[in-house]
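Lecture notes, part 5. Sequence design as translation. It can be helpful to think of inverse folding as translation between two languages: the language of shapes and the language of residues. The source text, in structure tokens, appears below.
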């Protein structure tokens, strides 16, 4: 049985973005989505807990691509992590906390807003539209986003 949590806050954890390349490679990208707790001591019983959602976008470059430098490789176009802070009424271990239905959608919305705002500032089209976010969330809910099975 999982413990009931309250969302206390959320914040940008980190971001790396290549907006021009993201615009260029647009359709030829793969996605990696990871979500899980951030803990220093898994056995510690706390009332304050953190989880992190990380979205990565890569382009597969052929050896003839100028950015590939003569050999095929992956180019990271985006890596954005957004953290959520949860509180519990009583102290507990992080592994007893279930996932709220609104956690991942909230964090995906924050990531999309952040990336799209940065693209807008670069005078580029928003790369993370509502249809793409809905698709990523659907794949996540289907169990395709796990540490062993990266969302592609």
């Amino acid at each position: 049985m999982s413990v009931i949590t309250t969302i206390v806050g959320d914040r940008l954890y980190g971001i790396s973005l290549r907006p021009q390349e993201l615009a260029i490679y647009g359709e030829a990208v793969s996605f990696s989505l990871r979500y899980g707790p951030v803990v220093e001591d898994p056995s510690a019983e706390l009332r304050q807990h953190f989880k992190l959602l990380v979205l990565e976008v890569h382009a597969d470059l052929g050896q003839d691509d100028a950015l590939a430098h003569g050999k095929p490789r992956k180019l990271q176009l985006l890596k954005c992590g957004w953290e959520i802070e949860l509180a519990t009424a009583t102290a507990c271990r992080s592994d007893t906390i279930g996932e709220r239905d609104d956690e991942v959608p909230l964090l995906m919305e924050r990531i999309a807003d952040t990336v799209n705002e940065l693209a807008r500032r670069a005078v580029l089209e928003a790369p993370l539209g509502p249809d793409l976010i809905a698709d990523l969330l659907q794949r996540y809910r289907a169990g395709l986003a796990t540490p062993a099975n990266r969302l592609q």
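The translated text above is only one of many valid answers, since several sequences can fold into similar shapes. Residues 103-121 form the longest helix (19 residues).
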